[in-house]
Amino acid sequence: MKKRLVIIIPIILALASFALLPINKDISFDKVSDIPKFELEYQINDTIKVVYPEAKNVNETVLITELLKRFHYKKVPLNDSLSSVIYTNYLENLDNTKLYFRTSDIASFDKYKFEIDDMLKAGNIEVPYQVFAVFKERYYERIAYVNQLFERDFDFSKKEFFDLDRKEATYPKSIAAQDELWRKYIKSEILNYVLDDKTQEEAKEILIKRYKRYKTAMQQYNSADIYQIFMNSYMESLDPHTSYFNPITAENFDIEMSKSLEGIGARLSKDGDYTVVYSIVPGGPAFKGNELHDNDKIIGVAQGKEGEMIDVVGWRNDDVVQLIRGKKGTLVRLNVLKAEGGVSSKPQVIEIVRDKINLEDARAESQVYEFIKEGEPYRLGVVNIPSFYKDFKNASSGNAEFNSTTRDVQKLIADLKTKEIDGLLIDLRRNGGGALDEAVELTGLFVDHGPVVQVKDYVNKIHQEDDNSNEVFYNGPLTVLTSRLSASASEIFAAAIQDYRRGVIIGEQSFGKGTVQSLIGLQQYIPEEKEKLGQLKLTTAKFYRINGGSTQNLGVTPDVKLPSTFDHTEVGEASYASALKWDKIPAANYNLDNSVTDEFIIQLNQAYSLRAKSDKDLQNLIADLEKLKERRGIKKVSLNEAERRTQLEEEEKAQPTVDELDSAAYSKEGLTSETSEKTLKLKDVYLEESLLILADVVSLADA
Q: What does 655-685 look like in DSSP terms, one character per residue?
């Protein structure tokens, strides 16, 4: 279960997704006068200190509102309708599990549901601060009640249940109802530790420390923190990639980006009380180890082999990062709730040796696989591309040997040609994007010339990025392997290969991130403001395929679909409520390659379907993924210890571990082949099946 206090969307500087927004000199902001007052009719406990907006926030709010109105791609008017969405977002960002507020609180807030638009336009945002003060009071009340619960023992022989998913739940109507809700919540938390072989007293000790940290963290919230929460509630109403960073958050980001990357190589964000892996840095220790993945939740951190596992649920993100960081060569142990298993799953301990993140290790790699299928020998090449990278510094300085994805892949393919491969597979499963021009140039290795992607900006102007190579470097059978984690530049490349009918796309439907963000500092618009202002990241453009369809939300649909590890409603752009919708613009002018026809795709799917009926490994993977989805779909858990233990034992016997499924879907094991009597047999089931499909492509192309 999640308790979300702050949503901070981290910035990942992928050049395919960012641009700099120029200053418009016609935008000017003077002191706002005659601001209407919006007072909350609620008597706040005298012991609760009410924090108010800073004076600079008046102009800052008006400025942000105007910038969004002029430059955001989605032209949504700031009116009562949007006001209602912002209001709902703010309440969810404070209390998305409906554990703290009561119905009486919400009733007192509801009168302002359709007035937030007027507040933002005027720069008066005192009401959100007073709502936060009510939340703070409720927060302290709950901590006091929790401390009372820790004084008693819980009976785990009773037949009780706790609803894990409170998204659709209602707020408690009374203090008594709220107390009962929290009794079950804390009982569930303690039972989780008991099932992990801890005593009730040990579990209570961990939770007592946790709630003490919660109280300290709440006491540390200042005006800038509250402003960021509220403004991001506004941003989230427009799209999931637009966000506001207060001066401290923006400064920390700038410092982080300027430092050399060192640690485990994972970018972290916050989801309620949980520290969540936002993305794995290609080339880092976590990437090489392949045990920690996107959307995993880190609930504990320990130093070395014997260090105490420190519970970090509820910690501020910066504090968790400090624990995880350390000297090169030292070991850190992470207690992790795997994304695939859900919050109710049993935690897994992952060991990672810290290291300096060498981006050289994130470069493309290749491997040749030789095997016999249906009596025919095949020699197939695989190129794994973890990101679309480019050494811009050396490239701009004229260094002819600068590193880039396209240059590296071209060298790898040249080497594979000397080994006389029959076909080529490009593996993009763990590729979250990168430099747009690299996606364009890489496409040029496989098509003669023409457009690769179209971009439509906030004033509806459309331009296209073209490949002007006028030559095809590799013209043999081609397949591209994607996953739900393939995003941005990966989707641009895969979509172009598909639209030109140059190759076959295999795997899962991709992420669906088809928007461009601009990062701007607010200080440049109000230079006379002595206090530091924050930064705004806003969506200013959208990517479109050359066939006219957007990559946004929908992503790239494979020609041959493999069983999916993730549910599209949980991972990917479509999982965000405010994600921009898929749409279409006129197609670009391009010439089809026609290596891949509709009949060709039908034949490949028929061959795959027949194999799926007889391939034991593939059948097991499909069955296991279905069981895992069922496990993730559980909405409530038993608070009876015997029932829970029986359930866990059955799951361990009947189902593979989440790590085993990760290995099957996202393993790098494929770079070291294992064969048995020339029959392809890999731990990486997805790669194995993709190579068999590529063999079908080769066979059909020769027919």
A: S--HHHHHHHHH-SGGGS--EETTEE--S-H
- Top pLDDT among 618 and 528 is at 528
- Return the pLDDT at 98: 93
Q: Which of 11-15, 213-217, 367-371, 428-432 has the lowest average pLDDT?
A: 11-15
| From 95, 408, 427, 499, the catalytic residue | 499
CATH code of the domain covering residue 310: 2.30.42.10
558 to 505, 690, 701: CA distances (angstroms): 5, 12, 19
**Domain shared by 80 and 196, yes or no:** yes
Distance CA 319, CA 258 (A): 20
- The CA–CA distances, whole Å, from 578 to 76, 269, 506, 508, 645 equal 12, 19, 28, 23, 39
Select which of 3, 513, 537, 542 is catalytic.
513
Between CA 379 and CA 371 the distance in angstroms is: 7
- For the chain, how many structural domains are there in total? 3
Instruction: Give the DSSP H or E segment for 436.
Output: helix 436-443
The residue that leads in pLDDT, 90 or 313, is 90
Q: Which comes out higher in pLDDT, residue 614 or 514?
A: 514
Label residue 282 by pLDDT band (50, 70, 90).
confident
What span, in angstroms and rounded, lies between the C-alpha atoms of 438 and 410? 12
Tens-place pLDDT, residues 443-464: 999 999 999 999 999 999 999 9
CA–CA dist 113, 502 (Å, integer):
52
Q: Which domain holds residue 475?
A: 359-514+550-631+644-702
Q: Model pTM greater than 0.85? A: no
Burial 282-314 (b: 16+ CB within 10 A, else e): bbbbbbbbbbbbbbbbbbbbbbeeeeebbbbbb
Same domain, 300 and 431: no
Are residues 374 and 469 both part of a single domain? yes
Q: Select from 214, 243, 272 the last residue of a domain.
A: 243
533 found inside a domain:
no
483 is catalytic: no
Tell me the pLDDT band of 342, cut-offs 50, 70 and 90: low
Mean pLDDT of 98-114: 95
Whether 534 is in a domain gets the answer no
Residues 201 and 339 in one domain: no
- DSSP per-residue codes, 541-561: EEEE-TTSBB-TTT----SEE
Q: How far apart are CA 149 and CA 95, in angstroms?
A: 21
Pairing of strands 331-337, 297-303: antiparallel
| Residue 513 bears catalytic tag | yes
pLDDT at 39: 45
What DSSP letter does each residue of 314-352 carry, written as one string? Answer: T--HHHHHHHH---TT-EEEEEEE-TTT-TTSPPEEEEE
Q: Is the same domain home to 201 and 81?
A: yes
CATH number, domain with residue 399 = 3.90.226.10
* 254 assigned to some structural domain: no
Asked whether residue 198 falls in the same domain as residue 229, the answer is: yes
When pLDDT is cut at 50, 70 and 90, the band that residue 219 belongs to is: confident
Q: Is 271 a catalytic residue?
A: no
Place of tokens 């220790």: 285
pLDDT tens, 590-603? 999 888 999 999 99
Q: What is the DSSP letter of 508?
A: S
Asked if the structure places residue 225 within a domain, the reply is yes
Catalytic, out of 488, 550, 595, 699: 488
